[in-house]
């Protein structure tokens, strides 16, 4: 595969043309212009992309900018000139801590765009035997993701953009991971000025479309299509009198099992060990394809994670521990032959 800085990838199996068959159309039936960043571009706003629709090249490096090793190219033509090519994006070998460092470097040089698209994917977990910095167990990888998200917010809270920046955090498309409430329940965070504080409880039901609509309204953008036009912004989350805010990120104690360059441990800090080591996780996930999002069988992986982290506890929805054990053994077999769940999900 040959790559050019000014074009999309060229190869024997790539047909001519720039049409993205998975992309939504924009207002007025404008083809392939239904993404949030299309609205921002059309409104004259600045956009900076970190890891969205990104095709990787080369190997993961902790600090690729220092070595001037480009990490890939965006698959979306319009994002090409607005993407940090040293930000690696989805790679479970990498640590989100290093992605944060690249984002922070880019912002220090180029400033913060009106709309920033930032992908921190380590909550997906995987690639245990080849993970950088010994971030090689589920607890460590999720803690790495949490810390990187926290560092982004900490950076903004103590910088020049604190008074006029909101951070919206949402996970990849919620599915195939049922909890005790709903298979599609997800977490979402809004952080920054004018967000309610002091233990405020908001009981209004919101979904991802409300989340997107809120971002549109904050940026002064109109709706892109009828789904977000009908959605209400998350107004109950905000308080226009609450301008002051701050945030200080701290790493989970779990991360002191890694070689990430963390702050010095506080006196008396107890560092818990992961439930299992890298050899265990490499063995039970052998055959799984973590090279891109949504390539592993999610049901099988959920079972493997549950068994490894929870032990002999009945899996949600199972009738008995015996059923949980049987389905776990089946999951180990499925892990080696599972078809990918190609829903095209993005963080």
Summarize the entry for a quick read.
The chain is built from 8 helices and 6 strands, in the order H-E-E-E-H-E-H-E-E-H-H-H-H-H.
Account of the protein in words:
The chain starts with 35 loop residues before the first helix and ends in a 10-residue tail after the last helix. The protein has eight helices and six strands; from the N terminus they run H-E-E-E-H-E-H-E-E-H-H-H-H-H. The protein is mainly alpha-helical. Strands 1-4 form a two-stranded parallel ribbon. A two-stranded antiparallel ribbon has the order 2-3. Strands 5-6 form a two-stranded antiparallel sheet. The protein has helices spanning 36-42, 96-110, 138-157, 208-219, 226-230, 278-284, 298-310, 321-337, and strands spanning 47-50, 54-56, 72-74, 115-118, 167-170, 188-191.
Radius of gyration: 21 Å
What is the total domain count? 2
Structural class: mainly alpha
The helix content, as a percent range, equals: 25-40%
Number of helices: 8
């Amino acid at each position: 595969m040959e790559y050019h800085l000014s074009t999309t990838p060229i190869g024997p199996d790539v047909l001519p043309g720039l049409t993205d068959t998975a992309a939504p159309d924009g207002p007025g039936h404008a083809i392939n212009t239904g993404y949030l960043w299309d609205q921002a571009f059309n409104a004259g706003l600045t956009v900076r992309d970190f890891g969205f629709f990104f095709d990787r090249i080369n190997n993961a490096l902790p600090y690729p900018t220092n070595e001037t090793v480009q990490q890939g190219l965006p698959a979306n033509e319009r994002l090409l000139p607005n993407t940090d090519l040293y930000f690696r994006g989805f790679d479970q070998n990498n640590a989100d801590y290093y992605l944060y460092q690249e984002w922070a470097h880019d912002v220090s040089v180029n400033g913060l765009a009106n709309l920033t698209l930032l992908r921190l994917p380590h909550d997906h977990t995987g690639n245990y035997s080849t993970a950088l910095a010994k971030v090689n167990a589920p607890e460590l990888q999720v803690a790495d993701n949490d810390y990187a998200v926290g560092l982004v917010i900490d950076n903004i809270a103590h910088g020049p953009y604190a008074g006029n920046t909101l951070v919206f955090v949402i996970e990849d498309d919620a599915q195939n991971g049922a909890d005790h409430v709903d298979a599609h329940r997800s977490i979402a965070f809004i952080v920054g000025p004018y967000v309610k504080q002091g233990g405020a409880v908001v009981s209004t039901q919101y979904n991802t479309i409300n989340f997107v609509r809120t971002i549109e309204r904050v940026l002064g953008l109109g709706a892109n299509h009828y789904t977000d036009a009908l959605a209400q912004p998350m107004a109950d989350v905000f308080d226009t009198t609450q301008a002051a805010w701050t945030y200080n990120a701290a790493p989970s104690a779990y991360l002191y099992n890694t070689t990430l360059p963390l702050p010095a441990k506080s006196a008396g800090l107890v560092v818990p060990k992961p439930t299992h080591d890298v050899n265990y996780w490499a063995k039970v996930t052998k055959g799984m394809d973590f090279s891109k999002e949504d390539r592993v069988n999610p049901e099988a992986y959920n079972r493997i994670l549950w068994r490894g982290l929870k032990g002999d506890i009945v899996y949600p929805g199972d009738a008995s521990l015996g059923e949980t054990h049987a389905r776990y053994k089946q999951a180990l077999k499925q892990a080696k032959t599972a078809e990918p769940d190609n829903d095209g999900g993005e963080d």
